[in-house]
Amino acid sequence: MKGLLFKDMYTIKMQSTFLLLIVFLGAFLTYSNGNAGFLIVILGITIPVNAIAFDERANWDKYALTMPISRKDLTISKYVLALVVLVLGTLLSSGFMFFIHKGDPAANLAMIGGSFLFGMLLISLLLPLCFKLGTEKARLFLIIIVFGVVGIGTFILSNDRLASFSPAEASLYTVVGVIAAAIILIFIASMLLSLRIMEKKEIV
Known about the structure:
single chain, globular
């Protein structure tokens, strides 16, 4: 597993120009409007998906299975990579928020935490599609997924009854905890689904 992660980290180094562009854009957005959450979501999605795309082009899975590496290892390593990237993106965004934007600490933490969970949700929906359909087709579904999630959020905010939901009716911490727990469960379910897909996938 550690070797697979090192291999993926090496492929990330090959994207250094793209990564520097994203980091620069994240710093600019943080300076201009205080939004560093973009960095977490973009890095959390693109790096794992690009790692799978590199594997597809190199026919890596077929070669890896000739070594003492299982389909389970190949699958779980991408989820571990996604978590590592999300955490690193969160740390970087936190630095931007607290040293460049210097806004309200509570608001900064809320934005960073929400962006982390949103990135975790998106990659949970995207990775099974990558394993099932390949990265090129999965990227098309990404647009549908993003619009779907944003659409649901817009519906909630535009619904007077839902938008007027007050923390006085239920603890805000409880609501946040339930949302976070739900996304973690979705992430775990996504990994189990991907494992099942990879077990049945014909690798030639």
